[in-house]
Design goal:
By secondary structure, this protein is of the alpha/beta class. The longest helix is centred in the first third of the chain and has 50 residues, at 6-55. It is built from eight helices and nine strands. The chain has helices at 6-55, 76-91, 112-122, 179-184, 198-208, 222-225, 246-249, 259-262; strands spanning 65-72, 96-104, 129-133, 137-139, 154-155, 174-178, 227-229, 266-276, 279-288. It is 32% helix and 17% strand.
């Protein structure tokens, strides 16, 4: 047997130790590299997942576009609340929309229907449906959907839900209607100066055209929780005056005025693009025209009050609703 010298043994031991050290370092480097790569992959996946949650909308944006037509006069406090509120409400429903405030800047009595006709003409043709929307009525229930009314006009503030008006043919407050249907009935009458009855006349137009009116279904918040009505009758009194022979001459459907004749019967004084707490609003100052031979009641100042004997006959053109008698409590 060959015997190793002491110096040779030392070199062999040193070589073994060196080999072991190099092997250990190599294994450590491989393990560290795998961990780093794994950590990088996890980091990318987490970042991508977070981005999907933030950027993915909760609802698909519709191909339809809504123009909200707001007939307006002296309601700036309500508008300051209305514009940002509706922006958020409709954003949550993924409804593309524009807000058009049609301000009556002339000296005549307020004419809501006439202003809606003007809003129809002036608003963006890219909107394929409109909302006839009071500025003082805010939807509270997110299930009140402003999507395109596929089945026909949708009366969002129906008589079952409106906080104030409950007769079956009530059509005021908020109504969604396609441009096609609105034009089909020649819009609204221009004869209703002062407060009230323009919606009742519009209801008769649609009934006679065979257009059915849809209403929200499955809303359980009732009159108390579906809307917030910001109008104060004490602070802002409605113009209920009747002069000349206004009552009888506005009792039946108007077959003389409407959307078509409105096109040449108003003037745009100014058009402004406003932003109210981040909510864009197109604000129009409008001067309406009054045919004093047809509707002298556009101004009742100094005019004789309407003391004519009321016409109580009824036919298919009568717009005055038959109100159900309320039970005495």
């Amino acid at each position: 047997m060959m015997l190793l010298r002491q110096s040779q043994v030392k070199w062999i031991i040193l070589a073994v130790l060196l080999f072991f050290l190099l092997s250990t370092l190599s294994m450590f480097q491989v393990i560290t590299s795998k961990c780093n790569n794994s950590a990088a992959e996890c980091s990318c996946k987490d970042t991508k997942s977070h981005k999907d949650v933030v950027d993915t909308p909760t609802k698909d944006i519709s191909d339809h576009k809504l123009c909200i037509i707001v007939p307006f006069r002296d309601r700036f406090e309500e508008l300051l609340e209305f514009a940002p509120y509706m922006k958020t409400f409709l954003h949550n429903q993924a409804v593309q929309n524009e807000v058009w405030v049609v301000n009556q800047a002339d000296k005549f009595r307020f004419n809501r229907a006439y202003l809606i006709n003007v809003g129809f003409h002036e608003s963006s043709p890219s909107c394929d449906y409109i909302a006839m929307h009071d500025v003082d009525l805010l939807p509270q229930n997110p299930d009140l959907l402003y999507k395109y009314p596929e089945k026909g006009p949708l009366h969002i503030s129906s008589s079952e839900l409106h906080p104030k008006y409950d007769y079956p043919t009530f059509l005021g407050g908020i109504l969604l209607i396609s441009r096609q249907h609105y034009a089909q009935v020649d819009g609204m009458s221009n004869k209703y100066w002062g407060w009230g009855q323009e919606d009742d006349e519009f209801y008769v137009r649609m009934r006679q055209a065979g257009i059915s009116i849809d209403r929200p279904a499955g809303i359980r918040t009732g009159r108390e929780g579906s809307f917030r009505h910001t109008h104060s009758s004490k602070e802002r009194k409605r113009d209920n005056a009747k002069c000349y022979n206004q009552r009888n001459l506005t009792r039946r459907r108007d077959r003389q005025t409407g959307l078509a004749k409105t096109a040449f019967a108003y003037k745009v004084i100014s058009k402004r693009q406003l932003v109210v707490d981040g909510a864009p609003v197109t604000f129009l100052d409008i001067h309406l025209e009054c045919d004093r031979k047809m509707t002298p009641w556009c101004n009742c100042t100094g005019a004789p009050p309407d003391k004519n004997t009321p016409d109580r006959t009824r036919d298919d053109d009568v717009i005055v609703p038959l109100l159900p008698k309320k039970k005495k409590t």
